[in-house]
Design a protein that fits this description.
Strand content: 15-25%
Radius of gyration: 30 Å
Strand order of the largest sheet: 3-4-5
Largest sheet: 3 strands, mixed
Length: about 180
């Protein structure tokens, strides 16, 4: 919700600052009649003061956003052992799963999605296959390799490894032409 509000404020701020800049350029180049600004009434002065106050508040908000530290927690799995804490990023686990799955012959274009549950990691692997290997055997081998490799390297139990076969890779067969 805060991000949407900040985007709306930034949009409003951009429009107002752009309009003020255009008016300033027109005023400086004498395109805008200078007598318009000299004969202002009290209500117009109040509107200008209110608009300036809003612009200052929005400017302060954007200044605060620009200098604050990003406190978003990069997703990781936290473990504790007798020596201290261990933080393993989700990207690390994803790369381990990709490495293990890519060793299986017949899989191409791998993508991994990770969920953390109470039982352990739930890995969802999306892949293309070559179509020459039995899909049940291929998926079983991918599941076994990924489960063993991720559990062995990270020490985190892997609850499930789901394999989604997205499609079959079309291999190009070249026919020799004899002329």
């Amino acid at each position: 919700m805060i991000k949407i509000l900040d985007r709306l404020l930034l949009f409003f701020y951009s429009i107002v600052i752009g309009a003020v800049a255009v008016c300033a350029v027109l005023y400086a180049t004498n395109v805008l009649d200078r007598s318009l600004l000299m004969d202002t009434e009290l209500w117009l002065d109040n509107i200008v003061i209110a608009a300036a106050a809003v612009i200052i508040l929005i400017s302060l908000r954007f200044f605060y956003i620009s200098i604050r530290r990003d406190r978003t927690n990069h997703q990781s799995i936290d473990l504790r052992n007798e020596h201290g804490d261990i933080h393993i990023s989700m990207e690390t686990i994803e790369n381990l799963a990709l490495k293990a799955a890519s060793k299986v012959r017949g899989v191409k274009d791998l993508k991994v999605k990770i969920r953390v549950s109470e039982a352990g990691l739930e890995l969802i692997i999306r892949t293309f296959v070559d179509g020459d290997t039995s899909i049940p055997e291929l998926t079983e081998e991918v599941q076994r390799h990924v489960r063993e490799h991720v559990a062995e390297v990270t020490g985190i139990p892997v609850a499930t490894v789901s394999v989604f076969i997205a499609n079959i890779v079309q291999t190009q067969s070249f026919k020799s032409r004899v002329e």
